């Protein structure tokens, strides 16, 4: 067996340590993805639900986004070499350190919208039926 070394890109630890990433921030995480020997960058943009571990070695942050009506969450290690860069788009004011309640809030809003939509199936009226109805004259007694 041969010893193969995996080439990892260095992480600018001081830059990542000083990132003002908090719950409620909207971030763009640029992830390196390797496919068929080539690497490409994929952007995952969403809302930060939680930051765990502060700025220590094992620090993680959870990002949630909605794609095609489906909520997706990813947990990223802060110092992962697979992350090319982290951009903070905006910072919202939140009163909690972990805003997991957003998951339930979104599902409640969807349920409320579904309640107000009509579930009846509409069948298009054929032209022949309409003509037949118009030719009949109502009789008044």
From TrEMBL:
<dbReference type="InterPro" id="IPR008991">
    <property type="entry name" value="Translation_prot_SH3-like_sf"/>
</dbReference>
<dbReference type="GO" id="GO:0022625">
    <property type="term" value="C:cytosolic large ribosomal subunit"/>
</dbReference>
<comment type="similarity">
    <text>Belongs to the bacterial ribosomal protein bL19 family.</text>
</comment>
<dbReference type="GO" id="GO:0003735">
    <property type="term" value="F:structural constituent of ribosome"/>
</dbReference>
<dbReference type="Pfam" id="PF01245">
    <property type="entry name" value="Ribosomal_L19"/>
</dbReference>
<dbReference type="InterPro" id="IPR001857">
    <property type="entry name" value="Ribosomal_bL19"/>
</dbReference>
<dbReference type="InterPro" id="IPR038657">
    <property type="entry name" value="Ribosomal_bL19_sf"/>
</dbReference>
<keyword id="KW-0687">Ribonucleoprotein</keyword>
<comment type="function">
    <text>This protein is located at the 30S-50S ribosomal subunit interface and may play a role in the structure and function of the aminoacyl-tRNA binding site.</text>
</comment>
<dbReference type="GO" id="GO:0006412">
    <property type="term" value="P:translation"/>
</dbReference>
<keyword id="KW-0689">Ribosomal protein</keyword>
<protein>
    <recommendedName>
        <fullName>50S ribosomal protein L19</fullName>
    </recommendedName>
</protein>
